[in-house]
Amino acid sequence: MTSIAIVYHSGYGHTAEVAKAVAQGAAEVAATQVHLIPIEDAEAKADLINGADAIIFGSPTYMGSVSGPFKTWMDATSKVWFGLGWKDKIAAGFTVSASQSGDKLNTLIQLAVFAAQHGMIWVGTALTPGNNNSNGSVEDINRLGSFLGAMAQANADQGPDVAPPQADRKTAALLGKRVAETAARWVK
After folding, report:
1. Helical residues (DSSP H) of 77-126, grouped into ranges
2. Cβ(171)–Cβ(139) below 8 Å
3. Helix, strand, or coil (residue 51)
4. Which of 28, 96, 146, 173 is deepest in the core (most CB within 10 A)?
5. How many CB atoms lie within 10 A of CB 63?
6. pLDDT in tens, 61-93
7. Taking the CB of residue 87, how many other CB atoms lie within 10 A of it?
8. How many CB atoms lie under 10 A from the CB of residue 173?
């Protein structure tokens, strides 16, 4: 059984919806156990996170970076880092902002560097960009064109019941599935 921990912070509910999509995608892979862990529960579920074969990090992009609560948790993992507790685990990430860009790439870079510092193996989307030609649509998979991790955009005036759109949720599910497949191969 492959264990996937999805550790995320969601300020307004949008990132939680993307985390659920990532979890649904990961759960499509046979013999995969998925754990959704809101950042508020991360300390209490440290053993679950530390025991996972893969950890997927999720944070909204606030002011071009991970959220404050997520960064506080990142800093608190220094004891795990010191003991190389996550070395050779699979890692991936996702983020959400209200703007089309919103500097989400910087958040994904921050998450990838964090994973690298822990000695983890980063997995990107492996998806070609959508919505980048005259025949494209906002309904395209990977409509925001990210390779490093899943990006989602949620209009600031819409709740998580509507935003992010289904295309972004499908993209997140594909990332979750890819991580679960990669982790299953890696832990053999």
Report:
1. 78-82, 104-117
2. no
3. helix
4. 96
5. 11
6. 999 999 999 999 999 999 999 999 999 999 999
7. 12
8. 22
